[in-house]
Amino acid sequence: MVVFCSPTSLSWTHFISSSLHIPQSFSVGETNRFRVFCGAAPSQRDNHMAVSVTGATGFIGKRLVQRLHADNHNVCVLTRSKSKAELIFPVKNFPGIIIAEEAGWKDCIEGSNAVVNLAGMPISTRWSPEIKKEIKQSRIRVTSKVVDLINNSPQGVQPTVLVSATAVGYYGTSETRVFDESSPSGNDYLAEVCREWEATALKVNKDVRLALIRIGVVLGKDGGALAKMIPLFMMFAGGPLGSGQQWFSWIHLEDIVNLIYEALSNPSYRGVINGTAPNPVRLSEMCDQLGNVMGRPSWLPVPDFALKAVLGEGASVVLEGQKVLPAKAKELGFPFKYPYVKDALKSILS
């Protein structure tokens, strides 16, 4: 049985058709007797989307799900921990959102117009050989699973769009070079991770529109790089991290969510798109602006050894950088709400 449900009324506890009631205890993937298409009927799909999201409980994923839900799109959260996802997306605040552990991913993906793949272990941690392996494998494992499920979806129910995250680490690091989407990959560990991550996503069927978003350092409230920088900043009187000459290719959380959202619905968004603001800064300028916004001085640098003591090899994420420009997004006319870091920080910290 195939059931189309409206984007505003989907709930496991509602009657979806006169002949079908799905009980409250039902969880996705428990039965193959019917399939629920979590989107509008075909004639309505121009206006409404059904989107499955991996990494939905992460920093970017949470905001994306909130945005999709607020705009009355159907959302399926693809997770490894249903209990964690239910705490982040409680049913009283997010009625109609479906939360599926891995056994239910297949039905969700086959009921979606689009898939957003944001899953991956955070990189801003102390790197051991085991952690480095998991940083890479967590990205490749989930991306491979998502791609396989899309590719094996029956004709007629296959998602038409995959928006898959990658990172500006693809380009390697440099204090002098400028990178855009046409630039070659670097030769360090994070560049290797990004190459394999992207290569896995590129195995999706050619009739599925693929947008690969190379995401920079995301700035936002209550998470991401800023939450880790501020305590160090306070401890060391607000100075730059390391030399301060490294480039900091950043983007406001609201802009990266809007860019992903646009990539879901705009057919011009395909291939590699840098998810960075149009005005990257050196880290010394970033820290000066942060000091100004916080009303603190910015004079005593955070020494390399302090970061390495905390992050080990992972300190390279902030001690080295790259100047990345969003050439494709600008060409597509994407409207950045926060093109300058000063305005981004003011909006976050005010």
CATH architecture label: 3-Layer(aba) Sandwich
Q: Using the coordinates above, name the CATH class.
A: Alpha Beta
**How many discrete structural domains?**
1
Helix content estimate: 25-40%
Tell me the Rg in angstroms.
21 Å
User: What is the number of E strands?
Assistant: 19
What is the end-to-end distance?
Answer: 52 Å
Q: What does the largest sheet look like?
A: 7 strands, parallel
Helix count from the secondary structure assignment: 12
- Unreliable stretches (pLDDT < 50, length at least 5) are 1-45
- Strand arrangement across the biggest beta sheet: 7-6-5-8-9-11-16
Name of the CATH homologous superfamily: NAD(P)-binding Rossmann-like Domain
Class computed from helices, strands and strand pairing: alpha/beta
Amount of beta strand = 15-25%
The third-level CATH topology is Rossmann fold
The average pLDDT is 84
Q: Per the principal axes of the C-alpha atoms, what is the gross shape? A: globular
Domain NAD-dependent epimerase/dehydratase: 52-268
Pfam families: DUF1731, Epimerase
Organism: Durio zibethinus (Durian)
Protein name: Epimerase family protein SDR39U1 homolog, chloroplastic isoform X2
Provide a descriptive summary of the structure in words.
The protein is an alpha/beta fold and 350 residues long. The protein is built from twelve helices and 19 strands. The strands form seven sheets. It has a seven-stranded parallel beta sheet with strand order 7-6-5-8-9-11-16, sandwiched between helices. Strands 1-4 form a two-stranded parallel ribbon. It has a two-stranded antiparallel sheet with strand order 2-3. α2 links the parallel β6 and β7. It starts with a strand and ends with a helix.
